[in-house]
């Protein structure tokens, strides 16, 4: 291939503090081609693309556009070079209309919104989008917001489009529509990069695949000349069998039973709709689903942080005792003697206090109990000891236990959080995206800790996004779809396809037939 | 475009932890810088800034009577700073110290005016009653904005501020109405001696109360469960809820405590310093104490030092006005500059500037690394010298 | 008819006060639209008041020192020039003060609340210092001549003000009122009808979004805060020159700056609403002079605007409309590489 690449990266390195996010990466992006940038969570895909779109600047290395070396210092520069990125977290302004968002950053002088509306319409017709330019963003669905993001980039005249995990939040139908649009753009001779870790999408959509692993560039291959097996090997570094240890706990007993649980968010939108399941002590119950299907609300309802509309949550320490958790605050749950541990998704904003050291964070669970419950003074000795223990046992990389948690790396932050939660010796352990953004080693440490808990007879609930992990770590998997349980499957026998189907509405019909036996208790 | 190029030469990154000697070095450096800037207004009046600062020190510390007056200024400053510290720790911007002090003073004055003449209570009993009522009144006054903050997330900064004007308005009404002494004088009569705080070492006993509050507040913030709750809420309300804390109740409780301490300060000012009640009873203390609290990084013991420094500035600048006819408001200017510098210097503690490798600026990087080497050499030499000594 | 007359006098009397509030509020709206909560408005207005007075005063001194006395014995100082000088001095000093705030919060990323309070302390200090300094220099009294005082507060439409009912309400005011209204309308048009205005609103809603759209967040924040501060400072000058009688006294601004900050919430960040909002508050401030209610003591009556403000604060915190919220990033600093 002698064609000049639209964008060429050479020897790109980027560090954040002591973490190297990208290490000497080389990459070529061509016009009229769809390139998949494949890699696990935390392999540095997004960081790399952020450097092309001017959000970050590389510490080392060069970027060339159409063969000419350039430096992209800001998103504005990137647009000048015809590069547009659609971020995973949409950068839209809620109180603006679609057209206002799309035209943002252009020109000066009078704002002629009618003119903009017309231009937006043109782009829509060309590629097959369907949106109303006058609609406010806060009234839009996720997929509509994504559409705005893409039009925004096209409106700016981008020749290279970078999409960061575009399908993570879409239903299969929406994904299909997006892929059609992307193919239209390819035919229009645009260069397209999609960041993903989903192999099926890579195989279906792209012309070339570039693989990153732990921030390092591995290779670029033509999609037609490779196989999912080969790709995973390159992505993970060794054959994909994750080899998560999954022992079986003998004599699992029901610990937590949820019946017809419903709840709404602050805006009154229904988030959970008649969710029912039983979590067993001595089992890891996985929860799968498209992001935002009610996972967060489910865990928060159980832990007493989210108000419940209707339904029941019953904790059964033994066969004869039933404790209703609905309406109980976290403190009351604790007072009732229930060990409820919760590793929330938002680690620093919810699970930990960033501006305190490890000891201060250990106190978060123990601050109310001191030797004398009524004493106004806080007990620092016990948490200090616990902090030391976790620091040593889990290998938290920090100079001492008095190092501020905020200044630790993501993996260490999570070790502190999980370590503290497990130290409570819980009967129920709730976890949400516990390995997001962590390196493989830390992820395995976390998996092992959860499995250990399971073998202690704890009911572990694991909300995850990586289906491979869910299938290898969990005993059963509950699939949520738009706030409803679309199925509960046996993780040892279920397949990825089966879960994938359940995650979307189309899978709901399956519920009554094939899945019920596996989930029935 | 020029701007963008500049961005590229100097880039920002969050710092990991910085050594504490550097941290304090930067802070002390910024104080010195602030004092240098403070010379400018003195110079504009045609005076030598050094003689200006000398006059300030002279006028506030050189004679026992000056010193006692300085202490009198420092006492309410320290007290009010202690009061707002827990609020600020909680990220609740209580700038209603002024009003809470005033309301406390009103409550105390009520008993001073109504009960003292009867003589039905012993001296200490009356004082205790005045102090308690001041604390409760100040606390309730602070509870009003706290309630709306907790329930409806009403902007507390403006709410507490408006409460100041309302409180001061009430005093103005009392002054010209029901509590007026001689008709038409617009003045409330002086308290009877039984309603006055006694002097200890020449200064009213308020200083003892405030020092007691200092120690208590230090313990409260550092070693109690309630102090811990406040710190967690200040970091993240979600985390606090996660840990089972009742955020609404804690906000209200903390504000009550804050208002109560301000109320006590109001009692101290009315009963100890002024022996009466008038509109200007708080006299800006509620605002200046914010400076004290922030400059001392909410550390109760550092507050003693800072409030004393600001009191020196305030007392000394009065002398500055009479001797060198430099307006006394120079103390506010210097206070403002001090605060600016201290706020600004945190940036150099939390962030580092990275100078990029670039054909043109490669030079910069080399110079910086050279300078760093020389510095570290000097430091190590100093250290070894110190060891030898 | 009597009630109508009272209302008209009330409206006319309220305007000087309302003008200061309107300018203060409009300036702060511009600033807050960029996501900067500048609590230093009181200080900025103080500075504007002191420097505006100082500028006009220096001008008058310079003219009389040059010995220009017109044949009729009228002083040669021109009211128009004095007004322009006062506006320029106030705007420039306010802009510089806001620049300090901008540097500390935008570049050095310090807490906006505390920096704003520091600016209030600093600004009050500078204002008092300047006023006192002039007073000492002048041997105890700083005041413009009656001739100039008149120029600052006279109505500019002259005879038109004599038209019954609408005359005094529409044409009976000093030049600053019309200036303030024009500024408020201009800022409204800027925010809603121009691209730069759209960009500024975007910066205030979500700097990260604006940044990724290629908008220079820092530059917009600086510009909005500085210009907004300048406008607020003109408000301070207007207060000193009209309501306070173009004389420097210790009373200063008695919280006009703070009321302006509160009014921003009342007006839902809309400069057009600031026009009638400040007229309403101006009326509240002077109502005790015009509409006497014998059962309410004056001093309690005077508290009214502050009480109304607290009620407004509570009421607006209860409203739950997505369009009527503060700029989303208000009070937060932006750091692009935050991770």
Key traits:
heterotrimer, B: 389 residues, two-stranded antiparallel ribbon, globular, disordered N terminus, C: 339 residues, mainly alpha, ABC transporter involved in vitamin B12 uptake, BtuC
Quaternary organization: heterotrimer
First and last CA, distance of chain C: 67 Å
Percent of residues in helices of chain B comes to: over 70%
The unreliable regions of chain B are 1-7, 358-364
Terminus-to-terminus distance of chain B: 55 Å
Query: How much is the average pLDDT of chain C?
Result: 86
- SS content category of chain B: mainly alpha
CATH architecture of chain C: Orthogonal Bundle
Give a verbal description of the structure:
The complex is a heterotrimer of chains A (521), B (389) and C (339). Chain A contains 18 helices and 20 strands. Chain A is of the alpha/beta class and 521 residues long. Chain A folds into three domains: 230 residues, P-loop containing nucleotide triphosphate hydrolases (Rossmann fold, 3-Layer(aba) Sandwich); 194 residues, Rossmann fold (3-Layer(aba) Sandwich), CATH 3.40.50; 79 residues, no CATH class. Chain A has a six-stranded mixed sheet, sandwiched between helices. In chain A, strands 16-17-18-13-19-20 form a six-stranded mixed sheet, sandwiched between helices. In chain A, strand 11 and strand 12 form a beta hairpin. In chain A, helix 12 crosses helix 13. Chain A is globular. With 389 residues, chain B is mainly alpha-helical. Chain B has a domain of 238 residues. A two-stranded antiparallel ribbon of chain B has the order 1-4. A two-stranded antiparallel sheet of chain B has the order 2-3. In chain B, strand 2 and strand 3 form a beta hairpin. Chain B is globular, with a radius of gyration of 25 Å. Chain C is mainly α and 339 residues long. Chain C is 71% helix and 0% strand. Chain C has 13 helices and no strands. The longest helix of chain C is centred in the first third of the chain and has 32 residues. The termini of chain C are far apart. The relative contact order of chain C is 0.21. The chains are: A alpha/beta (521), B mainly alpha (389), C mainly alpha (339). Chains in contact: A-B, A-C, B-C. Chains B and C meet through strand 1, helix 7, helix 12 and helix 14 of B and helix 3, helix 4, helix 11 and helix 13 of C.
């Amino acid at each position: 291939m002698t064609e000049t690449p639209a964008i060429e990266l050479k020897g790109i390195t980027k560090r954040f503090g002591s973490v190297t996010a990208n290490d000497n990466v080389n990459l070529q992006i061509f016009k009229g081609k769809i390139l998949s940038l494949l890699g696990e969570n935390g392999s540095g895909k997004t960081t790399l693309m952020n450097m092309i779109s001017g959000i970050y600047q590389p510490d080392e290395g060069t970027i060339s556009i159409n063969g000419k070396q350039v430096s992209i210092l800001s998103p504005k520069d990137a647009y000048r070079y015809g590069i547009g990125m659609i971020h995973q977290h949409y950068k839209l302004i809620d109180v603006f209309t679609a057209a206002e968002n799309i035209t943002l950053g252009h020109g000066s002088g009078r704002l002629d919104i009618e003119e903009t509306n017309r231009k937006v319409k043109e782009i829509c017709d060309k590629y097959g989008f369907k949106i109303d330019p006058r609609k406010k963003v806060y009234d839009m669905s996720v997929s509509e917001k994504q559409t705005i993001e893409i039009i925004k980039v096209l409106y700016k005249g981008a020749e290279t489009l970078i999409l960061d995990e575009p399908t993570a939040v879409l239903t299969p139908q929406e994904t299909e529509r997006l892929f059609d649009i992307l193919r239209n753009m390819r035919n229009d001779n645009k260069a397209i990069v999609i960041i993903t870790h989903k192999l099926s999408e890579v195989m279906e959509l792209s012309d070339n695949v570039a693989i990153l692993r732990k921030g390092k560039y591995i290779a670029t291959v033509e999609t037609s000349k490779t196989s999912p097996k080969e790709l995973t090997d390159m992505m993970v570094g060794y054959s994909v069998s994750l080899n998560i240890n999954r022992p079986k706990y003998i004599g699992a007993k029901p610990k937590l039973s949820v019946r017809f649980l419903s709840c709404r968010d602050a805006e009154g939108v229904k988030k959970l709709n008649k969710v029912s399941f039983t979590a067993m002590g001595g089992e890891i119950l996985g929860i799968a689903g498209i992001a935002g299907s009610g996972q967060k609300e489910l865990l928060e309802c159980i832990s007493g942080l989210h108000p419940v509309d209707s339904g029941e949550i019953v904790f059964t320490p033994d066969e004869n005792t039933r404790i209703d958790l609905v309406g109980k605050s976290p403190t009351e749950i604790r007072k009732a003697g229930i060990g409820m541990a919760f590793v929330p998704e938002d680690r620093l904003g919810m699970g930990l206090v960033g501006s305190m050291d490890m000891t201060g964070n250990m106190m978060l669970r123990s601050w109310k109990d001191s030797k004398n419950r009524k004493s106004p003074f806080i007990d620092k000795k016990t948490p200090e000891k616990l902090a030391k223990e976790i620091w040593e046992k889990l290998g938290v990389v920090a100079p001492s236990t008095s190092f501020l948690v905020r200044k630790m790396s993501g993996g260490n932050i999570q070790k502190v959080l999980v370590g503290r939660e497990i130290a409570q010796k819980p009967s129920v352990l709730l976890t949400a995206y516990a390995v997001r953004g962590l390196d493989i080693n830390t992820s395995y440490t976390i998996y092992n800790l959860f499995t250990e808990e399971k073998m202690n007879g704890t009911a572990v609930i694991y909300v995850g996004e990586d289906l491979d992990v869910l299938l290898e770590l969990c005993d059963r998997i509950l699939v949520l779809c738009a706030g409803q349980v679309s199925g509960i499957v046996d993780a040892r026998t279920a397949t990825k396809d089966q879960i994938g189907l359940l995650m979307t509405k189309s899978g709901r019909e399956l519920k009554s037939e094939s899945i019920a036996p596996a989930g029935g208790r | 475009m020029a701007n963008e190029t500049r961005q590229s030469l100097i880039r920002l990154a969050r710092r990991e932890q910085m050594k504490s000697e550097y941290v304090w070095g930067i802070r002390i450096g910024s104080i010195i810088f602030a004092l240098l800037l403070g010379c400018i207004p003195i110079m504009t009046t045609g005076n030598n800034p050094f003689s200006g600062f000398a006059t300030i020190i002279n006028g506030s510390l050189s004679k026992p009577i000056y010193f006692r007056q300085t202490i009198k200024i420092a006492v309410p400053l320290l007290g009010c700073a202690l009061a707002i510290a827990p609020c600020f720790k909680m990220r609740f911007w209580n700038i209603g110290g002024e009003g809470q002090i005033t309301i406390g003073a009103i409550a105390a004055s009520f008993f001073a005016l109504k009960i003292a003449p009867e003589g039905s209570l012993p001296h200490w009993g009356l004082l205790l009653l005045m102090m308690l009522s001041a604390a409760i009144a100040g606390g309730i006054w602070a509870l009003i904005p706290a309630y709306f903050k907790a329930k409806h997330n009403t902007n507390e900064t403006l709410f507490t501020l408006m409460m100041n004007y309302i409180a001061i308005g009430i005093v103005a009404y009392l002054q010209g109405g029901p509590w007026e002494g001689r008709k038409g004088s617009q003045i409330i009569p002086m308290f009877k001696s039984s309603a006055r705080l006694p002097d200890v070492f020449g200064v009213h006993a308020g200083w003892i109360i405030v020092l007691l509050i200092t120690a208590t507040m230090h313990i409260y913030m550092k070693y109690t469960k309630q102090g811990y709750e406040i710190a967690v809420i200040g970091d993240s309300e979600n985390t606090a809820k996660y840990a089972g804390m009742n955020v609404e109740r804690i906000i209200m409780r903390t504000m009550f405590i804050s208002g109560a301490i301000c109320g006590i300060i109001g009692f101290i000012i009315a009963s100890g310093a002024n022996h009466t009640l008038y509109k200007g009873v708080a006299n800006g203390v509620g605002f200046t104490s914010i400076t004290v609290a922030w400059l001392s990084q909410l550390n109760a013991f550092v507050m003693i030092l800072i409030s004393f420094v600001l009191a020196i500035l305030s007392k000394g600048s009065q002398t500055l006005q009479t001797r060198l006819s430099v307006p006394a408001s120079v103390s506010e200017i210097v206070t403002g500059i001090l605060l600016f510098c201290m706020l600004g210097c945190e940036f150099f503690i939390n962030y580092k500037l990275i100078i990029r490798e670039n054909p043109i600026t490669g030079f910069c990087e080399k110079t910086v690394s050279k300078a760093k080497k020389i510095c570290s050499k000097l430091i190590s030499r100093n250290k070894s010298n110190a060891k030898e000594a | 008819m009597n009630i109508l007359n009272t209302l008209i006098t009330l409206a006319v009397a309220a305007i000087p006060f309302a003008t200061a509030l309107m300018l203060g509020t409009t300036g702060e709206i511009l600033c807050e639209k960029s996501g900067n909560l500048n609590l230093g408005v009181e200080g900025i207005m103080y500075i504007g008041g002191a420097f505006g007075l100082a500028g006009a005063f220096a001008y008058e001194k310079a003219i009389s020192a040059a010995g220009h006395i017109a044949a009729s014995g009228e002083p040669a100082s021109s009211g128009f020039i004095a007004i322009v000088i006062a506006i320029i001095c106030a705007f420039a000093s306010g802009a510089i003060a806001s620049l300090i705030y901008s540097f500390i919060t935008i570049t050095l990323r310090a807490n906006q609340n505390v920096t704003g309070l520091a600016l209030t302390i600093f600004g009050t200090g500078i204002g008092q210092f300047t006023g006192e300094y002039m007073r000492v220099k002048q041997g105890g009294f700083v005041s413009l001549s009656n001739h100039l005082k008149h120029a600052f507060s006279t109505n500019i439409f002259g005879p038109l003000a004599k038209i019954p009912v609408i005359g005094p309400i529409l044409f009976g005011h000093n030049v600053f009122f019309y200036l303030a209204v024009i500024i408020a309308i201009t800022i409204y048009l800027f925010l809603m009808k121009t691209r730069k205005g759209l960009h500024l609103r975007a910066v205030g809603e979500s700097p990260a979004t604006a940044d990724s759209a290629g908008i220079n967040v820092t530059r917009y924040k600086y510009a909005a805060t500085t210009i907004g501060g300048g406008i607020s400072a003109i408000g301070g000058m207007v207060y000193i020159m009209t309501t306070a009688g173009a004389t420097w006294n210790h009373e200063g601004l008695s919280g006009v700056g703070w009321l302006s900050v509160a009014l921003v919430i009342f007006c839902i960040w809309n400069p057009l609403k600031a026009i009638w909002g400040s007229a309403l508050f101006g009326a509240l401030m002077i109502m005790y002079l015009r509409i006497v209610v014998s059962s309410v003591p004056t001093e309690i009556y005077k508290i009214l605007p502050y009480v109304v403000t607290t009620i407004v604060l509570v009421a607006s915190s209860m409203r739950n409309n997505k369009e009527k919220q503060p700029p989303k990033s208000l009070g937060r600093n932006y750091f692009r590489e935050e991770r």
